[in-house]
Amino acid sequence: MDRAQRAAALAGEVIALAQSTLMVHLRFLDRALAALRPVAHESLWFAADGVHLYYEPWYVLGRYRWEQNAVNRALLHAILHCVFRHSFVGRD
Questions:
Q1: Residue 43: in which H helix or E strand, if any?
Q2: Which residue, 25, 29, 51, is CA-closest to 38?
Q3: Most-buried pick from 23, 36, 68, 69 (CB within 10 A)?
């Protein structure tokens, strides 16, 4: 397993931890949190399209190292965009 694969796996664990933490504290969002499937993506830092949660592994790991709750807040922000149907920015 190379360094990029290890980073993607570890970032996936951080995302899963953030999802679990938010489910415990915000139980009413459990279905929305469970609906997004995390997918490592090299060019999207952190984005959701209503089905997938795209994340750049090194970005997630850096945010988690800087402050553990930063990933929770980013995930909550993405979830709320989906809940309120603001999944896309701009006209296109």
A1: none
A2: 51
A3: 36
Rounded to two decimals, the pTM is 0.84
Give the pLDDT score at 11: 94
Q: Which residues contact 29 (CB under 8 A, 6 or more apart)?
A: 22, 23, 76, 79, 83
DSSP H/E element including 40 = strand 37-40
User: Please, what sign has the CA dihedral across residues 89, 51, 81, 8?
Assistant: negative
> Buried b vs exposed e over 49-72: b needs ≥16 C-beta within 10 Å?
eeeebbbbbebbbebbeeeeeebb
The size of the chain, in residues, is: 92
Cα(33)–Cα(6) distance, integer angstroms: 24
Contact 78, 15 (CB under 8 A): no
pLDDT under 50 in the chain at which residues?
Answer: none
Helix (H, G, I), strand (E, B) or coil at 38: strand
